[in-house]
TrEMBL record:
Keyword Translocase: no
Membrane protein topology class: Single-pass type II membrane protein
Gene: ftsQ
The species this protein was found in: Neptunicoccus cionae
GO BP term, example: FtsZ-dependent cytokinesis
Protein name as it appears in the record: Cell division protein FtsQ
Claim: Metal-binding is one of the keywords in the record: no
UniProt-annotated location(s): Cell inner membrane; Membrane
């Protein structure tokens, strides 16, 4: 190629004072290369996007967070003592207004199923000033108070048409138990049915005495049923050592029963009484604790008479 055919090059003059130096150009090039945005997401952005795609976190952020904010604001508002006092006063006034409505009024109390004395005890146990709102009555607590009365076996408390209806099942006294310093009525299972100051009015009930006698009331009733012809002579049953019974008869006679099978032992005494009139003689104690045979204890007069007869018999034998 000849010099004529070569392309012409444009020569541009650059002032060295206004043009950047080589070092400046390299720094600018490095800066541009670092400032260029990276098209791939960062690690933090990637994790946030993955969390946002999780349904649980999305629900928490969209629903849970606003609810938490609202709850926090409400709690902060009601933490003020003045607000709390106003709220309590409003609730109390509303409750009082509802309780005092006529349809909730209870005007009287009716006690059914008990004697006059027991009904009086029930009214004394739950004193009330009528009318009273039914919303203020705790029926379970009233029932518990009524059943705490000795003479009440069970009770039911109901609200019926503005009436507090109390239905009770009264304990039926079966025995009179004499304690160390007082008298008690007990039913057939030994539960206390009342406290007595004197026995008047209950003379027809059998008497039991001794520590723990009331806990064996059912056995005492079986003994009384087995006494047969001796029933009219029985003055009481005495519990001895919390183990066994003594049958106390009139004329100071005592039947000592064993620990085991006392009813059968008493039936043997009844049989001897019918056959030989055992208790019609000068006998003070019939001891059945041996179990094999009765042991008799005679009166002092009978013992003297026995000694006299033996002396006569011995004198006749010597002659």
């Amino acid at each position: 190629m000849s010099a004529i055919d070569m392309p012409r090059q444009r020569l541009v003059y650059r002032d060295p004072d206004t043009q950047p130096s080589y070092t400046e150009r390299m720094e600018r090039s490095a800066h541009q290369s670092t400032a260029r945005p990276d098209p791939s997401p960062s690690r933090i952005k990637y994790r946030l996007e993955r969390i946002w795609l999780t349904p649980l976190y999305r629900s928490l952020i969209r629903t849970g967070l606003p609810i938490a904010i609202v709850v926090g604001l409400v709690a902060n508002h009601f933490s003020d003592p003045v607000v709390q006092a106003r709220l309590a006063e409003s609730v109390t006034n509303a409750r009082t207004m509802i309780e005092n409505r006529p349809e909730f009024a209870v005007n009287l109390m009716q006690v059914q199923g008990g004697s006059t004395s027991v009904s009086k005890q029930v009214r004394e146990a739950i004193p009330m000033v009528f009318p009273v709102s039914s919303l203020q009555l705790d029926l379970a607590a009233l029932k518990e108070k009524i059943e705490a009365i000795d003479a009440v076996k069970s009770a039911g408390v109901f609200l019926r048409g503005g009436v507090l209806d109390v239905e009770i099942v009264e304990r039926v006294p079966a025995l009179v138990w004499r304690g160390a310093d007082h008298l008690e009525l007990v039913d057939k299972v030994g539960a206390r049915a009342g406290v007595l100051e004197a026995r008047e009015g209950y003379l027809e009930l059998p008497l039991i005495l001794g520590t723990g006698a009331q806990a064996h009331a059912s056995e005492a009733l079986r003994l009384l049923a087995a006494a047969g012809p001796l029933s009219d002579r029985i003055r009481g049953l005495r519990r001895v050592g919390e183990r066994r019974w003594d049958v106390m008869l009139d004329r100071g006679q005592i039947i000592q029963l064993p620990v085991a099978h006392p009813v059968a032992a008493l039936e043997r005494v009844v049989a001897l009484q019918r056959a030989r009139d055992l208790l019609g003689r000068d006998v003070t104690v019939v001891d059945m604790r041996d179990g094999r045979r009765p042991v008799l204890r005679l009166t002092a007069a009978a013992v003297e008479e026995l000694h006299r007869l033996r002396a006569i018999a011995d004198g006749e034998s010597e002659t």
